[in-house]
Design goal:
There is one protein chain. By secondary structure, the protein is of the alpha+beta class. Strands 1, 2, 3, 4, 5, 6, 7 and 8 form an eight-stranded mixed sheet that branches. Strand 6 and strand 7 form a beta hairpin. The longest helix is centred in the first third of the chain and has 21 residues.
Length: 178
């Protein structure tokens, strides 16, 4: 067996996708949390217009790690025209949803809201974006008690990053995919 085939077999044994059986509980929890965030944001007057997976699951680089939490990076997107001026406002709503659902150590970090759900070995990061009609995204930046100088809606290109990573080896620079 060639080294390339050995590596492919190893890769196939450790890779983790959103549809994999062992990820079922995490996926169902993510779907449920996303639905609750959408409900909350709608009630708050800035409905979610889009949501998508980011990170390793979006770029097919997730791996199975013994004893490690499953990781979810779920982007929440609201319409720019309805988004609150303060980028911390929707992050506080996400924080409340996560705390109400039993997440421990939920906190607002500079780029996202993050929490651990120990009962299901799940770690979740939820960045909030606002999106303009022209397709441009801005990321809600700032911590819970950030003053005006330390919070902002910052230009971002989350989908372009995902696409760039996914396209990177389309020419099979690092070997054939078969």
């Amino acid at each position: 067996m060639s080294l390339q085939n050995k590596f492919k077999n190893f890769h196939d044994a450790i890779k983790l996708g959103r549809q994999d059986l062992e990820y079922t509980t995490a996926r169902l929890k993510d779907d449920s949390i996303t639905a609750e965030i959408k409900k909350r944001f709608k009630e708050d007057g800035y409905p979610v217009i889009e949501d998508f997976i980011q990170g390793s699951l979006a770029t097919s680089t997730g791996i199975r790690e013994k004893g490690q939490d499953f990781d979810i990076d779920r982007a929440i997107v609201i319409e720019e025209g309805l988004a609150p001026e303060n980028p911390i406002t929707p992050k506080l709503a996400v924080l409340e949803v996560l705390e109400d659902r039993g997440f421990k150590n939920a906190k607002i970090k500079k780029p996202c809201v993050t929490a651990d759900y120990k009962a299901d070995d799940l770690h979740i990061d939820i960045p909030v974006y606002r999106k303009y009609e022209n397709g441009q995204y801005e990321l809600a930046i700032g911590k819970r008690h950030s003053d005006e100088e330390n919070r902002q809606w910052a230009l971002s290109s989350p989908r372009e990053l995902i696409n760039w990573v996914n396209k990177y080896d389309s020419d099979e620079v690092y070997g054939s995919k078969t």
